Amino acid sequence: MWSDIVQRIQSVANAIEGAFTFAPPWLVMAIVIVALTAIEWLLHGAVLVVLRGAFRARRPYLQTVLDQTRNPVRLGLLLIAVAITLPIAPVGPDLKALVGRLLGLAVICLCGWMALTALRIGATLYLMRFRIDVADNLLARKHVTQVRVLMRVVEVVVVLVTLGFALMTFDAVRQFGVTLFASAGVAGIIAGLAARPVMSNFLAGVQLAIAQPIRIDDAVIVENEYGNVEEITFNYVVVRLWDLRRMIVPLSYFIEKPFQNWTRVSGELIGTVVLYVDYTTPVEAMRNKLDEIVRQSKLWNGKVVNLQVNDCKETTIELRALVSANSSSEIADLRCEVREKLIDFLQREHPNALPRRRNEVVEPRSRASAEWQPPRSLRAR
After folding, report:
1. What is the pTM of this model?
2. Do both 139 and 254 map to the same domain?
């Protein structure tokens, strides 16, 4: 079938060349390439119009797929036109071989481009079903993390495979590769040691995508710093700290070292509010006030509220209030709200319950009694 198409194209080219006997051969070839490309692009445009009309109501997202793959497809059609007209080109065999090799390189790069485009489109379409900007986003963060990490790993693999196929089209590179594999003893060990950080982060990325010790937007404590996982790349993780600083952490860190993940299973957290008050503080009244505060707050999730005397100091007692919320940001705001309102309650209703320092005042003895008196035994004598 392909040979029949080539023969028909050759007959058409010969007819065009016969019609344009006054034109040089290279001009005839250019006319054939332009004509074939125009026909292919017109057919491609017609197919796009038909598919867009068919997918407009049922598959609106596929229109984006068609738009993003339009340029690679047109470039591929151009390469097909050049490859078809190459056998009838009025050039020498050496130049034909060079052009054929360049076309092979272009096809390999185009295949890699198409693979990356298809990968990104598939990942984007899959992630459209999940939203991480809502309260209950555990499942969404799980899928977003898996897709993004695996997508970056597969992108690197596709680029490396494409580059490898492109280089193997050159005889010198192919012979160098064979020689390198034949003498890969010490050189392989040195290269392995040099690439150990890269490979460790690569394998850590695969482990993170599968086991998921961290996810996108997880609340973590790394190196005694609190923040949220903002981005997971091929070899590092970006943690957005509470004061908007960014901490860059290698992927292997989350596999080799311990860290805290506050949203590993769910976003619910229990916060602690500690107050130091006087021994005369009415604990039961403060417990009732705490219950009133959290029930009026929109941040409380309705699960945990408790007040206990946690410790006793020399001059104060330590009260510990426990409250719960659905996320780390909400628990931080709820703790501040509870602390502020409890202090305000003590200031207004029980000012004597605030911490104070007690001093005992002793009246001094009179001057007469302060004078020295001899012992009774001496006075009797």
Report:
1. 0.53
2. yes
